[in-house]
Amino acid sequence: MKNDNKLNINDVKTSTLYLEEIVTVVDKIASGFLDRETMSMALLLFFKEKKVLDKLSFTRKVLYKELQKNISPSEYDDWLEEDCQLWKPPYDKSKNEIMLMLDHIEN
Q1: If we measure between CA atoms, which residue out of 77, 52, 83 comes closest to residue 64?
Q2: What's the pTM value of the predicted model, to 2 decimals?
Q3: Chain centroid to CA 39: how far?
Q4: Judging by beta carbons within 10 Å of its beta carbon (0-12, 13-18, 19+), is residue 50 exposed, middle or buried?
């Protein structure tokens, strides 16, 4: 029987490889394209082809399992509410408005 309290080193290794891949490739894409639209499409292609969201979800699950061993669910919720500031997608903005927002950040 598997001991759920024991750190699964293979899951941690897999998560580390996923993070290494994602951070490295996103950095390469961000610095490798001059045209933002092409860069955006390349990022989307990478995310879809390499199932980045699945990999990040797996990694979050591995980390959460480790945190659960050390803090209670309510402590975890409190910690997220206090320390995790989620980025809000600009659903109400047009493509041109988002481009202007990008220009503002880069300067």
Answers
A1: 77
A2: 0.80
A3: 18
A4: middle
What is the SS3 string spanning the chain? Answer: CCCCCCCCHHHHHHHHHHHHHHHHHHHHHHHHCCCHHHHHHHHHHHHHHCCHHHHHHHHHHHHHHHHHCCCCHHHHHHHHHHHCCCCCCCCCCCHHHHHHHHHHHHC
Q: Which residues of 59-81 are buried (b: 16+ CB within 10 A; e: fewer)?
A: beebeeeeeeeeeeeeeeeeeee
Q: Per residue of the chain (107 residues), what is the pLDDT tens digit?
A: 355 567 789 999 999 999 999 999 999 999 999 998 999 999 999 999 999 999 999 999 999 888 888 888 888 888 888 888 888 999 999 999 998 998 888 54
Q: What's the burial of 58, exposed, middle or buried (CB within 10 Å: 0-12/13-18/19+)? A: middle
